[in-house]
Predict the structure.
Amino acid sequence: MTIHPYFQQMKLAMGGKAWDSISSLLIKYRLKQGGLTGSVEQLRSVLSGRYVERFRLGMLSGAEGLDSISPWSSDSNALHRREQDKSILMGASNCAYLHCLAYWYPERWSANVVDKGIVHKNGCDYYLLHITPDGGRLLEYWIDANTMLLHMTVEKSAVQTVTRKYADYQVIKGLLFAHNVCTSVGDTQYDRICELEYVVINPEIYDSAFEPPLPKQHSQIFRDHTTSCQFKFQLISNFIVVGVSINSDTTLPFILDTGGVNLITPEAATVLGLKQEGLVFGFGAGSDSINMQVTEVKTIQLGGIELKNQVVYVYPLPELADAHRIETLGGILGYGLFRQAVITIDYQRNLLTFTRPDTFHYEGEGAVVPFLFNSNIPEVRGSIDGIEGVFGVDTGNTVALVLNAPFVSENSLMAKYHPDDHTTGVGAGGANSELAVAHASLLQIGGAYVHDLAIALAQHSHGALSNPYLAGFIGTDVLKRFIVTFDYSRQQIIFQKP
């Protein structure tokens, strides 16, 4: 396999043949982001592309990796999962391509490389290459025409463009490494700065080093050693609202949201005396980004459930609370809760049932639909009026079905449905989700069928509703036609007729 001439010159500039004997790398960086400091450590198999990265940033910590099976991730609360969303799989392939230096050794990970010529930017000349690794997506690769060193990569993920800039190259044992790597999503306040601390050349590695941590055998969230509990909820403007106590203090209303993360409002955090730190980037259905902070709570209690020592996000929800008339809204409970129990939602009786996963057995006649994880959101295969797609299932979506802008455009749905109304969606991700409203005949989700439903067609190009890998989000107006069971441990959703 041939190596592009620019890559050949780049290799010579960075150490030449010395790279031929490199089989693995252990790299540690000092980490700065959003006013927080910490560290990140990367272990790379240069021959195969497998990798694992562990970080700590203030209260936040986590890991992600690629073993011989698939990419995986672990969050601050030690919840692990195999990543299965198409966008994340493509991003992992891009990382593997870069980590195994396949631009110099194309036999390790093949890719399509297109020479885009010289680009003049900010007074400098760069050689621009478009690289699409096998299983990956387009990656812009900018090489400084003067030094022949990597200057920048640009990659468009599902909902944002990620730019990494490399600077301050220094020699370590005959090899050149960038001592400063800045990762940006377009707003400097969220920039992730990695400063090289040390490099270990050819550390001994084992297959197990790249594997995710073992999952928890039993859920520890059930109080009084029970295996199941039930309690009532309120359905307010199609939100599931439950009373939650933080650190055994005042009970506040929280929204139960499969599409969300665990978070509390700044007002609740202040009343509870919780330390808030950092500035964390997030996004939701709207086109606005979310400025979040982080805090740690000792206990989260609802019904017979208790989550201990949880790292949660802090974010104001005034538009959401005001629009849906939820007084003194305390926050949202999402993936961090659903991941640890089988949760059945009976909308007819306003009843929640939590069951320990290892004791749950379903013997009913409902439709058992498998799902994959789209980060923290369950996604299922289905179709709307015969048009197939992948849909997120979101109890925080108050309508029946919201269709993402790329899916709407690709399938000419504005012309197909002739929407007769428009609305503005209100959510945690910004209050400017412009939606056209229409009606569809049939939504099919596995063996579950929903006839005559309202649909909302997204029309903007930012936020979760701009994701080209997802058709849209199934919401409460569909879910409340069923008794719905979310079993994250087995990756299945059960739709049972009341």
